[in-house]
Design brief:
Strand order of the largest sheet of chain A: 2-3-4-1-5-6-7
Largest interface: A-B, 40 and 33 residues
Strand content of chain B: 25-35%
Number of helices of chain A: 28
Strand order of the largest sheet of chain B: 6-5-4-3-7
Helix content of chain B: 10-25%
Oligomer: heterodimer
Mean pLDDT of chain B: 75
Number of helices of chain B: 3
Distance between the termini of chain B: 24 Å
Radius of gyration of chain A: 27 Å
Chain lengths: 632, 106
């Protein structure tokens, strides 16, 4: 990393870019509104992908310019400079220099800067402009600048930078015509122009800053008044007493809403699924085919799809917290606690996203500069209660725990049980973090440096796109992995045929497999049916619900809520508690294993992680079974 | 460990010192009335003189606005008083106390 890429940037010869696919890169510092601009430009024509060899996600989207002409836009990670130090910065650096495999060097650059903090953000303009690519300098949040009585002579700035400048409000969609015009013209003209300006030596930040200040002066840049609302809100959210109360209320509110608030929605989906299943069944004359489609596929996949509203609510919350700027404050509040376990506030955001899903969470650890902190965060992230555990928890809790009010109508026993399971995962995570940081990943206390963005209203478009993206991922999984497992389970449960008729479930192949593993799981209070579910859930946790749906569906109890009743007959309270504990700790997710392997560069860490988590799950589930059986 | 001292003129001189020496140096500096960021009171400002941290960390802070000659104001703190939010060059940046003591004021 010591070699000086920054200095030699201007002299690197431009590689010839294939003329067919035009790529424009969006570059900017963190919190400059890159993603909002990207969403504005591409809308639904976007997808998340990974660069080969690195775990940094990038979003690629198509912009339609005129009939039959489109430009690809790639949203690069936010950077303060082009010095490649963290993985994020390396990706941005490599893409801009055309050193990224499988991606041609961009034809042009959209450099997006926060106009309310222009003098500092212009520091990034020097290295980006010296790349010699056609660049549009976008001064975002122009509406905010005007409202807070700041101003700039954008024509003069264009002169000073030798590049066109657009004043834009990406949230409101103002000034976007200029961006589209630039995209149209920059991808037609072949010859990239060289900047005719004297730019400061890129390595020297004080000089870059002095240059930026000088440019600011010449363009009569008028910094806006400080953001009053951000100060007022921080006075509340970072208050020694109220700040902590708000923090706790946010956390409890999230759990209560995803559990209680999602109920009516889930009941609606459930009713729709069983009604459509019955309707489908009435249309299919062949009995075997009807059984496969209705009892196997429909009840298997359907029992997982029911949880879509709940998962979307969770992602909606995380989206609102992140886009509004509160998540950065939450990281700040959590830093002291995290430091006690050898981690830092920056680990809080990946760990909070791990409540939704460990895969994006592990990808989000890229913002942690300290390698050992990052590794520890990756290894503990799967302990956080991800949304795939939610279907299992919801099913078991609803089946075994009667709802009683604890704190008025807002907080009942079921929400409390759910919250304690979340706490259990969290405790396991911090225990493991402590263990790792005091042994194999020991390091000196790392620093915590984090910019606090101003509070902003989350845009509906960004939130909607997030939810649409998540629904796609979830439904794709329901339509592939879970569908395949449902079909396989149905087939295994119907073979071998005895006299042309399917056997009783206990005598089928699936039943035999379940009976084989039964001795191993009996100490936990599980029977062979749960055993089949545990085996299939190695692919993904929520698969167990679908599998049980299929198994019990075959037994003919797959009415609405039928699965709960069936479980109550089949599982003792001790076994139910053990199942919850087992799912809280066990590593049952192929996607997470794959992403950990890629992140840590080998199978060693995911193998250790799998053994550790599953071993812990087994021991703790055994203890839970014993304790509950003894006491109740 | 190498540490970079930044002078207000943007030149840097490289000092070779280990962590223990840096700690001694900062406690010695206090006697000479050189204050650091951690000593600022809420709403109080000071002008940054130098960053006594390894080059890698110092650069990161400089990119976020902590440049010699710039005014730094203490804003809110996390409940418990650490980390604290500093206002510098149009942004608000949170630092832990252990980092803030390495940022020396004029």
């Amino acid at each position: 990393m010591g070699d000086c890429h920054g200095c030699s940037v201007a002299t690197i010869p431009l590689p010839q870019v294939a003329a067919r696919r035009h790529i424009v890169a969006i570059v900017g510092p963190p919190n400059s509104g890159k993603s909002t601009l990207f969403n504005r430009l591409t809308g639904l024509r976007q997808k998340v992908a990974n660069f080969p060899g690195v775990t940094v996600e990038h979003r690629m989207g198509k912009v339609k310019l005129e009939p039959h002409r489109e430009v690809y836009v790639v949203d690069l990670p936010g950077v303060y400079s082009l010095m490649p130090r963290t993985e994020d910065e390396r990706v941005t650096h490599d893409v801009l220099l055309g050193e990224m495999k499988n991606l041609a060097r961009p034809d042009a650059v959209l450099l997006i800067l926060d106009s309310t903090n222009l003098a500092r953000h212009l520091v990034l303009a020097a290295p980006v402009l010296s790349l010699g690519l056609p660049t549009l300098v976008i001064l975002n949040m122009a509406d905010d600048l005007k409202r807070r009585e700041g101003g700039i002579d954008s024509a003069e700035l264009a002169m000073q930078l030798g590049s066109p400048v657009a004043l834009v409000s990406a949230t409101k969609g103002q000034g976007m015509e200029k961006v589209f015009d630039f995209l149209a013209s920059a991808t037609v003209a072949a010859a990239p122009k060289k900047p005719m300006l004297e730019l400061p030596v890129i390595q020297d930040i004080p000089k870059c800053r002095a240059w930026a200040a000088n440019v600011g002066d010449k363009t009569r840049y008028h910094a806006p008044a400080p953001p009053l609302w951000t100060r007022r809100l921080d006075a509340l959210f970072l208050h020694p007493v109220w700040g902590l109360m708000v923090f706790l209320m946010v956390v409890i509110g999230v759990f209560q809403t995803i559990f209680a608030g999602a109920r009516p929605l889930m009941d609606g989906v459930q009713a729709a699924i069983s009604a459509s299943g019955q309707w489908m069944g009435s249309l299919i004359p062949n009995e075997a085919l009807r059984s496969l489609l209705v009892d196997g596929v429909w009840s298997g996949v359907g029992s997982v799809v029911v949880f879509l509203p709940q998962i979307l609510l969770l992602f909606l919350f995380i989206g609102v917290l992140e886009d509004s700027g509160y998540l950065a404050r939450a990281a700040l509040i959590a830093d002291r606690t995290m430091a006690r376990f050898g981690l830092q506030g920056r680990s809080f955001i990946p760990l909070l996203s791990a409540y939704a899903c460990a895969v994006p969470a592990i990808m989000a650890t890229r913002t942690i500069e300290n390698k050992r902190d990052r590794m520890a965060t990756i290894l503990i992230a799967p302990f956080m209660t991800c949304s795939a555990r939610l279907p299992v928890y919801t099913l078991i809790i609803a089946a075994f725990l009667p709802e009683k009010p604890l704190l008025g109508v807002f907080f009942g026993t079921r929400a409390a049980a759910l919250l304690s399971l979340y706490a259990l995962g969290f405790l396991a995570a911090i225990f493991t973090a402590r263990l790792l940081k005091s042994t194999v990943l020991k390091s000196s206390r790392s620093s915590f440096v984090m910019e606090m963005p101003p509070y902003r209203w989350p845009t509906l478009q960004s939130l909607a796109l997030r939810l649409i993206d998540r629904s796609r991922v979830f439904l794709r999984r329901a339509g592939t992995v879970i569908l395949a497992v449902a079909v396989v389970i149905w087939i295994l449960a119907h073979l071998p045929l005895a006299g042309g008729k399917p056997p009783a479930i206990g005598d089928s192949i699936a039943g035999m497999i379940g009976h084989t593993v039964e001795p191993a799981i009996q100490p936990l209070g599980f029977n062979w049916k749960i055993g089949i579910g545990l085996i299939t859930s190695l692919a993904a946790r929520e698969v167990i619900v679908g599998t049980l749906g299929t198994i019990y569906g075959i037994e003919g109890t797959s009415q609405s809520r039928g699965l709960q009743q069936a479980l109550r007959q089949d599982l003792a309270p001790g076994g139910a508690a053990a199942l919850l504990v087992f799912f809280a700790f066990a590593m049952q997710c192929m996607s997470t294993m794959a992403v950990v392997r890629r992140e840590t560069g080998g199978w060693r860490w995911p193998a250790i992680q799998f053994a550790y988590m599953t071993g812990m799950a087994y021991v703790c589930a055994f203890l839970a079974n014993r304790a509950v059986t003894l006491w109740f | 460990m190498q540490s970079v001292c930044l002078t207000p003129w943007g030149r840097y001189s490289i000092l070779v010192s280990d962590v223990q020496m840096s700690v001694n140096k900062s406690s010695g500096a206090k006697k000479l009335n050189a204050r650091n960021l951690a000593e600022l009171k809420r709403g109080e400002s000071g002008v940054l003189d130098r960053i006594e941290l390894p080059e890698h960390d110092a650069r990161r802070l400089m990119e976020m606005g902590f440049l010699p000659g710039h005014a730094v104001t203490l804003g809110h703190s996390a409940p418990g008083g650490d980390p604290r939010v500093f206002r510098v060059d149009g942004s608000e940046v949170a630092l832990r106390r252990e980092t803030a003591v390495r940022l020396i004021l004029r």
